[in-house]
Structure formats: structure tokens, C-alpha cells
Amino acid sequence: MGISPAVVVEPNCGYGSFILSAIRLFHSIRDTFAYDINNDYISLLKKALPDITGIKYHVAQQDFFSYDWDKFFSSVHGEILVLGNPPWVTNAALGSIGSKNLPQKTNLKNHSGFAAKTGKANFDISEWMLIKLLESLGDRHGYLAMLCKTTTARKALKHAWLNHFKIGHITLHLIDAALHFGVSVDACLLVAHTGISEIIPTAEVYSDLSFNKKLYKFGLIGKELVADVDEYNHLKSLDGFPYYKWRSGVKHDAASIMELKKDGLFYINGLSERVELEPAYLFPLLKSSDLANQRLTPQRYVLVTQRTPSEDTYTIKTAAPKTWNYLIAHEDLLDRRKSIIYQKRPKFSVFGIGEYSFSQWKVAISGLYKKLQFVVVGQYHNKPILLDDTCYFIPCSSEQEAYFICSMLNSEIAKRFLHTLIFFDAKRPITIDILNRINMKHLAEKLSVEGNAIRYLSDADVFEKQQGFLVYEEKAKYRTKKSSANRI
Questions:
Q1: Less Cβ around it within 10 Å: N or C end of the chain?
Q2: CA dist., res. 59 & res. 43, Å (int)
Q3: Which of 216, 207, 103, 225 is nearest to 156 (CA)?
């Protein structure tokens, strides 16, 4: 790439493999800085450093998270290369083993409400480190080259672009993490130029550690990442107001207790216990693997203790005493559920539940599989089929509506559009945020089915208890399926 750094920095050097290679390969180096929190690593690296005239070594024990990187980068002179392999672990994982080597807790990405308390608030330690380094480099002309998960690279870049960091000419070079590190995760070498005056929020992805085969270009459009910038620009008219509100399935965090299989008049839970329960709180259940493999006849049931998250669960004691006694028998396990969402809620609560959960018809998709296949989910033994929290769905008022919407979403153009938004290497490639970007009205226009679409889109949010939507324009006035009294 023609990089000739005067200064090389490895912020968490470990045994120092990167810094030693840099010394060997870059003859322009005059200063090297290698830090690590583990003093044993520092002692070993000091012994391994070659005695080369003209190179100054600065090797010391240092806590990355307490170090003043802004001050550091302003004090060094010359072209800088920051390189290394930051830890591939999340803040939640470190917290679970009692590690104190964590950044100060802040709402880094300004998540609000529920999102700030759950999965979205979790992040890779390397993500925090990459963001801090890119931010601290600021106007300094230099380079950052780090091995990391591809998802971590994207998250760090999104934050940098949204906050107008002066970075550009960004490339991701995919590596085989299973071969080199023995871990099954999508990983890359992230290379970014810093101190760039003209910020173009895109990054090119290459198949290996060269520039021979470019796979695609992703970037920031508006406030969100798109997986394929060029294809997105051809289909961006499909991005917008969704009409339907996508939902995730029921969340209970206690599968061994709350999910059961029917055995004659009894049910068997995940602990192999054979129990007798009233049917009132039991519903047929489908999971991600069922949707992805077209297994739409439920093989298990889920115990749903509420119709809404705030509903009092003590009514179960009277309405279904066998079910109540079953819950009491397992209250220790249910009370130990760690997620903060169960705090200050009724005993035995579940989450991801509402009127929409009990709709007789749904259009659903798995969030975990790298497969864009929408399916219609209906009823089983006169009960609505529920989905688990790895699935997403929109509730429909009729079978006809469900099949019509499903056919639109399974169309070639809809899938092409979704492919521009989805990063299939992510742990959960398909998300509610992505699904809510499909403008169903514009999709219907592309498919020339506006006439049928108007019958459904005006009442698409009926399960959210909203007023009917204004959908299609006719003779300079908007019309809906509702009466003229509801027109604006």
C-alpha cells in the first residue's frame, strides 16, 4: 500500500508479534510504542527486541482504558501506523467472569429505553478500542490496521461515520479465523487511513489480504449501514415507511420450563418431567429452525403467562391451578433469569408479548438463518401459533392478507432489496430494523399489485390500535379503505 510509517504503535501487544514484524519490515520506523496490561508479556517483549540503530523503543505496562490516547497521539511526530489484534470478547463476557479490565460503562451509542438495557448495549471490547483509537487520531495523518471480527469492524466504522471521524480509503480484507485462530467467526484485517479531509462513508471488502478480488462495497446511507451501496442505489425507492410493524416472538429465557412437548393428556418439559397442565396458557410454538426448514406443523408448546407484559400473573392461580403449581415448583429457576427486562415485572413474566402475538395469521421469517424465505403461519388445533424470540413476524387479519403479503415479500425484487441491507455474516443477519425498512406501498407498485395492496395496507397496523393509514393517491386526494370521515 506504500505505507512508510515513522511511528508504529501496538496498543495491546501481548507477546509483541506485530511490533516485531513491523520492525523487521518497515525500514522507515524510528519510534515504536508497545503497551499491554500484562507485565509478563512486556518483560518477554523487551528481551525479544532487536538492537537496531536509529529505532527508539517505548515498551511499558499500560491499561488501554485508562490511558490518555488523545494526549499520546498529539505528542508523537511523523506518520503513524497503529496495528494489532485487540481482544475478541464482549464486555458482557468479561463482566461474567469478574474481569475489571473494562472501559468505563457509558451508553456509547446513545441507545434508548429497552435497547440500552439488552443485547444492543453489549459490544466487543475491540469495538470500543477501535472507536477510541480512531477518535484520538483525529486530524493526525496515519493508518490503523487491526485484526477483528467483521461485525466489530462495521460497528466501529458506523460509529465513526455517524460522528464524522476523519477517516477514509477503508478496506476490509477477509481472513480464515478458523484456520489461523481456531475460532468459528467471520473476521478481517481492517485498514483505515486517518486525517482525511473528504469523508466518504464507504468501505470495500476483499476476499483476502490483497486487492485482487473485491467482493462488495458497504457504507453509511442516512444513519444506517447498507451491505451493498451500488445495488442499494438502484433499489432505494423500496426503503421507507413499512406500514406493518414487525415484531419478534415471545421471550422467556427458560426453555427447559416454558417449552413442552405433548404426550397424550400430559406434557414433557426440557427436564424430562411429565406434567399435567390446563390448556389455557399453552400455545403451539414454532422456532427459527422450523421456519427456515418449512416445518410449519408445531411439535412443541410454549407456556405464556400473560397477554401483555404488565398483566398480573397471579390470576393463573385461580384460572389454572395446575399451571400455577407447576410454575411455583420451578420458581427458583424462573426467578434466576438474569435479563433486566424481568425486573420489577409480575412474577413469571414473559416478554415480547401483546395482542399481535395472538393474531390468527402471521407472515414470519427466521432471524438466525442466512435464508430469505417468508412463510405464512396460521393456527393449530384452533389456537394461534406463537413464535420464539429468534423469529420476526407481522400479524395479519385474514388468511388472504397473510398470503398476499407473503407473496410480495418473497418476490425477487423484495429479496434483492433486502440483500442490499443484510450482512449475512452477522450472528443474527435479519433484524426488525432491516425488515421495517421495506416500504410495502412502493413494493406493491413495483409489482403492479396496488389494487390488492390498498385492501390491506390502510389497516396494516390494526393490531397496534392505530387509525388507518393514508395509502394511495387518487385525483389529488388520498384514499383509504376507511370511510370518508377518516380522511384528512
A1: C
A2: 9
A3: 225
Q: How confident is the model over 382-394, as a mean pLDDT?
A: 97
What are the grid coordinates assigned to 390, written together?
429468534
In this predicted model, what pLDDT tens digit does every residue of 5-18 receive, in sequence order? 999 999 999 999 99
Q: Residue 289, Cβ neighbours under 10 Å: how many? A: 14
Element (H, E) at 248: strand 247-248
CA angle 452, 450, 488 (to 5 degrees): 100
Contacts 24+ apart (CB under 8 A), 377-383: 377/286, 377/291, 377/296, 377/402, 378/402, 380/284, 380/297, 380/298, 381/284, 383/283, 383/284
What angle in degrees, to the nearest 10, is found between the helix axes of 125-137 and 150-162?
Answer: 40
Query: What burial class does residue 441 get, using C-beta atoms within 10 Å of its C-beta: 0-12 exposed, 13-18 middle, 19+ buried?
Result: buried
For 340, the 3-state DSSP assignment is helix
Task: Report the distance separating Cα 317 and Cα 314, nearest Å.
Answer: 6
Q: What is the mean pLDDT of residues 431-459?
A: 93
Per-residue pLDDT reduced to its tens digit, 299-330: 999 999 999 988 999 999 999 999 999 999 99
| CA–CA distance, 29 with 18 (Å, rounded to integer) | 14
The model's pLDDT over 126-136, given as tens digits with 9 standing for 90+, comes to: 999 999 999 99
Give me the pLDDT at residue 473, please: 54
* pLDDT of 458 over the 70 cut: yes
Widest pairwise Cα distance in the chain: 86
In terms of Cα–Cα distance, which of 305, 223, 296, 307 is closest to 258? 305
pTM of the full structure: 0.82
Closest CA to 291 of 366, 358, 359, 369: 366
User: 300-319 burial by CB neighbour count: b if 16+ within 10 A, else e?
Assistant: bbbbbbbeeeeeebeebeee
